[in-house]
Amino acid sequence: MDLQLNGKVALVTGSSKGIGEAVAKGLAQEGATVIVYGRDRNATEQIKEQIISVGGDAHCVTGDLTVEEDVAAMVAEAQRLGGAIGILINNAGGSGPGEDWSNASPQSWASTYDRNVIAALRVTNAVLPGMRLAKWGRVINISSLAGLMPPPVNPDYSAAKAAMLAMTASMAKAVAGEGVTVNAISPGTIHSAKLDMKFREVAVKHGVAADAPWRDVEKVVLPLFAQVPVNRVGTLQEIADAIAFLVSPRAAYITGSNIRLDGGMLPTI
Predict the structure, then answer these.
(1) Quick one: 60 and 82 in the same domain?
(2) Which residue from 152, 148, 149 is spatially nearest to 102, judged by alpha carbons?
(3) How confident is the model at residue 136 (pLDDT cuts 50, 70, 90)?
(4) pTM beyond 0.85
(5) 157 flagged as catalytic
(6) Does 212 lie in the same domain as 149?
(7) Which of 37, 113, 157, 253 is flagged as catalytic?
(8) How does pLDDT run across 168-214, given as a tens digit for each residue?
(9) Domain that holds residue 224
């Protein structure tokens, strides 16, 4: 299927690793010009060069999304390098220091909210007017299954990701008649480098070799972490593929939606 992304410019925040890296590479593979964003200049440059080395078109920008001036400068540089931004993936964020309800602090909640929700708002505010003027645009907010079925720990992260879902629904309604769609993605248990390391640490404690094939590790450890009906974790490529479709012209009638990539973990539609 031709996703018709040739000539589109996509800014992917937090794309120097993990989900963001996979999404940036996936969009470039589909023909989009990708702006790779991260705080670490070297890591961001590496992803850009990897995309270019396989025939993709990419540029990179850096900055701090919790600083208004940095965001303005980053978006201006992105547009100078790649042109008008028609696709925005708000992926940057992450959890805090791992608090629970015995030590939750207003300061950590504010910091997590700033890194996730307000950071996405800052970038969106800088990019959305151009999309509305062009009468075409795609915004994807990366939430989490934690925003829908929060665990007892990391409540700041769950609350921030739930806020991103509400933000998505509101924004989608505001721009629905202007050629701009806004959707959210809520990943469940995904095979990132961080998850791989954590699973292997647990696997060793259950008699599985640290360098065992991933499927052997997954079979033993996954049931200890989550009940996933498909009996495996998701892949970064599966997230990238879903987003590539959602930002394409072919998905013009999908807006205000939250797509769960969770292998059936949440027992509802």
Answers:
(1) yes
(2) 152
(3) very high
(4) yes
(5) yes
(6) no
(7) 157
(8) 999 999 999 999 999 999 999 999 999 999 999 999 999 999 999 99
(9) 191-233
